[in-house]
Structures are given as C-alpha cells and as structure tokens.
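Exercise 7. Predict the structure of Inner membrane protein from Vibrio aerogenes CECT 7868.
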Amino acid sequence: MKHWFLTAAGFLSLGLGVLGIFLPLLPTTPFVLLASACFMRSSPRFHRWLLNHAVFGPVIKNWQTRRAISPEVRRRGSFLMVITFTFSIWMAPSTILKIILFLFFIIALTIFRRLPVFDPVAHREENH
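Solution. The predicted structure, encoded as tokens:
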C-alpha cells in the first residue's frame, strides 16, 4: 500500500512540476525534488529514470549533493518566471489581480534568486 501511494505521489508531483514550467504560480523544482524523494522510497526504476532524465536529472543531483542550483538553472528559471508572470499579469482581467500577481512574482523571484548557486565549471581542478 505504501509503495503504491508513494509511486502515485511521485507521478503527481512530477506532473505538477512539469505544469510548473508553464504556470507561473506552480513551482517546478520543489515538485520535481518531491517526486525524486517519493520514487527513491517506492520505485528504484522510476528514481533512476528521473536521475538520468536530461532536464531534471542534473538539477536533482546538484540539489542532493550540494543543496544548490547551477547558474544556468538560475538564469533559465528567472527568465521563464519573468515571461510567464508578464503574460499572466497582462492577461489578468482586473487591476487587483494584476497587483496580486505582481506581488507573487516579486516574492517568488526573490526566493528563487536567493537559492545557493554552485558552478561545477568554476570548481574544476584546472581552474584553481
């Protein structure tokens, strides 16, 4: 029962993370990390698949080993947040909703930009 619950929670979290790529108020990274944690406890096969995924794997590995994101993830994430929030604010039907979305944008971007950054290229032996 626990196995099935964790597997279902992992897929739900992964789905929400993928949606978060396109929806500004839905964060991608926390849901992908939650999916990884669920799969780690329920399905080694899905956990391996997620760790080896071209997009999500490096982010998960970097977070698990260093509790940090790469500079590329920071740039890409910031850019996508600006684009999606700008579009959402532009499409919002009322001024109060535009203000609320703008405040959420400022909070989300501030939290995201404060995450620790680790650049593996800068820490290679030949650079020291």
